[in-house]
Amino acid sequence: MSFKLSMLRCGQHIARRTTGVRRNWQLYQSQIRMLATAAEKPRVSNSSGHLEFSYHNASGPANLKRTSLSCVHQDTAQRNFNTFDIPEDTQPSRIEANDEGVKVQWSGDAHESFYPWDFLDFYLKSDKRVPEPVEVEYFGARGPQTSQGRPPSLAYGDFSTNETETVGRLTDHIRRNGFAFITEVPVDSAEPTEKLLEKIAFIRETHYGGFYDFIPDLALADTAYTNIALGAHTDTTYFTDPAGLQAFHLLSHTDKSSENGSGANLGGQSLLVDGFYAASVLQKEDPKAFEVLSRVKLPWHASGNKGITISPDKPYPVLEIDESTGKLHRVRWNNDDRGVVPFSGEHSPEEWYKAARKWNEILRRESVEYWFQLKPGNLLVFDNWRVLHGRSAFTGVRRICGGYINRDDFISRWRNTNYPRDEILKRIIG
Ligand SMILES: [Fe+2]
Asked: At a CB cut-off of 8 Å and minimum separation 6, what does 164 contact?
């Protein structure tokens, strides 16, 4: 069953437990999980100003006390009144259960709330909503392997046939596999590439500009604007919120001095490394090194352009762990943009360098590096929080266009092209 937002005066309700009630919740949680195996709906009643849910076949009442209930606007999905205007002693004055859920009228202003059974059932069994599940598939030297035996690719034409479905597939590939190609993108100008990226989300502006279309002329003070080899790294390590996605499209690669001027054999192979896979190898081979890289917080910076000095809001480790799941959340790795390793802390600079050397050695393994040749017409989009990129040196002139997209906007687009709206709201709001 899903929330019927349009049918409800109060589409959803946020319930907070008081501190004193948390103990009760923990005490009863296992009991509630056991009871949940039955399809039986609990009886709901007013108990000392709180809603109480009880099951007739339980040895004692499984109760969950809730306070500070509020409602959200059905159009904006925002809470539609000031929570703190509700008197602390607000109590249910009337409770009415039916097949759909429970209607409660509250004391004071006689406000009515409706709680669908699936909402109540979820919070009687669980503490909080969890994000949509993602089955991350690591890749190594052969790249991600789809059923077609090649990395995930979508055709440019598919976006005009069914934009939402195709963006859904593209963003889902990136979430699972770390990157995807879009083939047959026009190369006469950079505009089709820009418009295509905007189908995911708006392109992020940085001190380098927004959507870029450049040849390596060192117009901006960064090694990306040269033709030298670049080791595997993530971009924008110096932002509090590093770029979520990055896209490259090689529009042309020519060399007038070569025999045919076509740009063949001019180098410039592209490199991708699955940072999550590399980190899993590190954790297995050298758990101490993994721990050091996940705990030592480093300064990062961008200072190459006059008048610009960017650094994150605070130091960040190379491997960021999500405290709620214990899983690797984000890789931040660009040795060129790293500041001084801190001298004080639980791990010494010597320990950090030892761990980083091991990490660097894994990133350079043949089994981990995925090399390929970018070709005009093939747009690459990858997850910059997970996948490191690099390239070999090249000769001739390359024209590359691309851009960054914010992580939050990417995830929002992925959600809204892969899940029904009511399912998303349920997970995000509660
Ligand atoms: Fe880069």
From this structure: 417
Ligand 1 centroid to 249 CA: how many Å? 13
Distance 282 CA to ligand 1 centre (A): 23
Cα–Cα distance for residue pair 396/43, rounded to 1 Å: 76
CA 34, 36, 40, 46 torsion-angle sign: positive
Alpha-carbon gap, residue 158 to 167, rounded angstroms = 9
Q: How far apart are the CA of 338 and the centre of ligand 1, in A?
A: 14
Per-residue model confidence (pLDDT) at position 199? 98
Q: Provide mean pLDDT across the span 217-230.
A: 65
Q: Which CATH number fits domain 153-418: 3.60.130.10, 2.40.37.20, 3.30.200.20, 3.90.480.10?
A: 3.60.130.10
Q: Please give the DSSP secondary-structure letter assigned to residue 2.
A: -
Q: Separation of 412 CA from ligand 1 center, angstroms?
A: 24
**Token pair of 336, please?**
């060129």
Spatial distance between the Cα atoms of 316 and 293, rounded to a whole number of angstroms: 10
The ranges assigned to domains in the chain are: 5-128, 153-418
The predicted-structure confidence for 43-98, as pLDDT tens digits, reads as follows 888 777 677 777 665 544 444 444 434 466 667 767 666 778 778 788 888 888 88
Q: Give the Å distance between the CA of 269 and the centre of ligand 1.
A: 14
